[in-house]
From TrEMBL:
Major localization listed first in the record, in broad terms: membrane
Family label: Belongs to the TonB-dependent receptor family.
Protein name according to UniProt: DUF4974 domain-containing protein
Keywords per UniProt: Cell outer membrane, Membrane, Signal, Transmembrane, Transmembrane beta strand, Transport
Domain Protein FecR C-terminal as annotated: residue spans: 28-95
GO CC, any one term: cell outer membrane
Top-rank taxon: Bacteria
Boundaries of every TonB-dependent receptor plug domain copy: 272-349
Pfam families: CarbopepD_reg_2, FecR_C, Plug
UniProt organism field: Antarcticibacterium arcticum
Signal peptide range in chain numbering: 1-18
Keyword Cytoplasm: no
Topology in the lipid bilayer: Multi-pass membrane protein
Amino acid sequence: MKFSFFIILLLVCFVSFSQETQHKISVNFQDAPLEEVILQLESKTNLKFYFIEEWLAGYRFTGAFENTSLEEILEKIFKETLLNFYRMEGNKIILTRNNVIYDQFPRDIFNNSAGSTVERGDAQPVFIAAERGQSNVKTIYIGKEDKTNKTRNFLLKGFAVEVESNRPLPNLTVIIKDRNIGTVTNEQGYYELLVPIGSHLLETSSLDTKPFQVRLVIYNNGELNLQLEENFEQLGEILLAAKSNQNVRQAITGLEQINVGEIKTIPLVLGERDILKVATTLPGISSAGEGAAGFNVRGGRADQNLILLDDAVLYNPAHFFGIFSALNPFTSGEVNIYKGSIPAEYGGRLSSVFDIKTKKANTQKFAGEASIGPVTSSLALEIPVVKEQSALLLGGRSTYSDWILQNLDEPNLKNTRASFYDIIAKYHHVINDNHDVEVTGYFSKDVFSITSDSLFSYDNRLGSLRYNHRFNSKNRGSLIVSNSNYNFNIDYQGGNANDFKSGYRISETEVKYNLNYLYSDKHDFNYGMSSKLYVVKPGRIEPFGEESTVEPLNISSEKGLESSLYVADNFKINEHLLITAGLRFSLYNSLGPGIQNNYEQGIPRSEFTIIEVQEFGSNEIMQTYVGPEVRFSARYFLAPELSLKGSYNTTYQYIHTLSNNTTVSPTDTYKLSDNNIKPQSASQYTLGLYKNFAHDMYETSVEGYYRESKDMLDFKVGAQLFLNENIETEVLQGEGQAYGVEFLIRKSLGKLNGWIGYSYSRSFLKLDSEFREERINNGAFFPANFDKPHDFSLVGNYKLTKRFSLSANFVYQTGRPVTFPIGKYSFNGADYVFYSDRNKFRIPDYYRLDVSFNVEGNHRIQKFVHSFWNVSVYNVLGRNNPYSVFFVTENGEVKAYQSSIFSIPIPTITYNFRF
């Protein structure tokens, strides 16, 4: 019996050995189509393959095998495909796509719960329930099933684009409905999700696109690129946020997002669609008034805002002293304003960051958009270069105000000038799924002359190159190179010996490498480094004409290098608590060539107290400052639609703007930190509540803040700032305080939509010293020039029909502080004015109501031109809002005057169209 059993066992082993031997073959393939590979295998064996031909399309294989088993050959052939194979009796090979054929149950299949990881035995098969009630939903299979893979959660990634233009869709919510998990696409439209194995329903949510739904069957890691259709139903709405519930869920505080395409119904001055003017209707963001350049964010000065256009600094974002924005609304895409929690990757400014992105051009077909208004016109063209791969965006704006002024029947305006233009170009090229390049160039110029003898001009020039690279599913990075230039000039030609040309210039060049690492679903790291070189020419003056006797003067250039390292982690502790913690370390070097004055200690600085003059060679370090900056914010869910957020930020600023006006003028100048002027620094604390109602139809928030600042730069009484070789003798550095509370309620959907914003805020400055000459207001805190406690804005749009709507915009602000003369005195036979403490009084309060009627063209998709008419009235109440109050002595009497920019209703008609 034992012998018989041994014989049978020997025969079984022999048969098995024979079968294994006869299926070892030698074969060689050189870039052969997969169907040809299978045919060769059939010709060399007695096997027969069963498959669907279209499954093999696009696959090719290269490989050489010598006396190799068939199983090993097939494993290598199908390794990089979505195909699996199953060998049946009778030498039949069945190919399947995505899934695996099981001929027996794996071990412990009934002892493991769904979604768990199998600890022993084979991986569990994927069971897919029959679809009921959703037969119209498309099913897509991701990856292929692997018997040896015991993982039960896989990475799904991809890009979301608009189907017609192929432009990326940022801020798109991607949700796995049955698992209540989701994410939001980044600015390149990229997303990543960890999804359990099996069948799931994926949905997208965005105000810009139509709803999208697809059934996924997840077998392994894979990609799903989403092509979504634009939602034409939303054309008449006024919305600023495109993220569903994002205001409640995210950890960052004080973030405002403007959807540029949806602000066209807001009535603004002269019919201009103005991004930055819309920003001032949000709480915490204001300007000194009509005609003021720059913005004040949470009690900060205008030069404390970092304004980025495609990663390059835009120094002056205004045309004609703040009346118009220097940004083309038809080429602008996403606008993110950080006024609370500033991400660790940004630095160099104290108050805020305006991160403005130019949209990417349509890569499939030629498109454009334009507007024709009473004073200005704008145009944007989208030109495909390589279909579905690269495109060029061109934009331009200009005013014909010069022509209007020359044709007015007013002799006083015959010799005046007021014109501006700006142009922008952006080229975007997708190399492959992992590499793309963006190149942007921008130039703007303003020329104006209010008097016949002076011509003012200023221009911005910037360029940036951004190379985006995805290393793998968890790591991606961007290399950014940018350059910015800003010039201000004044030419005076009065026909006498005092004619001159003057101006100043600043330039900066930055290299930045930014990286993202998705470590897990709980940790998302952002880190990198940057280095920025400043070159400032503080001022120059030279004679204008042969008869001029003006002595030329050129203030020595300044140079500084600001470098930084930063890291931040978006850390999800649990379902309730989310923390974003970051650290930025900045290093600033004041570089030569240059001269530094050393002053005698214990007495006020002046040109007479210089005790030593140090000279430094080219690129020699004159002074060094270091600044560790903490960036921390947290969000805690009190309820599903209610969150509490808090943040703490520290920031440093190494460049200063010196001005004794509220507008850009020839007396303005830029100054870098050196051994006599320290960098400014600030710490800000923020706490807020965020609540959404009625399925995110209503968004509400209340946020309070407190900021302390050090080494704030201001000027002495009677300071001479322009063309001063020893500027440190005319300025003071002191403390700053700002605090406030902001309230916002926004309705995004429905016939009536818009927002109400209110902020109560105060901003104070303290310039104290042991010396009387260096004290302002006896060393006490006094209101800053832009301190306006009450700021209320209401923006609303009511849709009468899908084509017709009414819009209104109401603004109320406390009048800003000013210094008034409170008396006069005589000295040596001359009369002089005696002024009050600085900023002791206020100009009258500001309020304004604007209305507009909007007419959309019909919404047929195949229509060649989609038009939009805007009929608006700016300052419909005719309020004579004072911009400034000034005093003139006439015949020994001091008289007060006020200046206003728009003191009567301004009606305009603007025609917009896109194709």
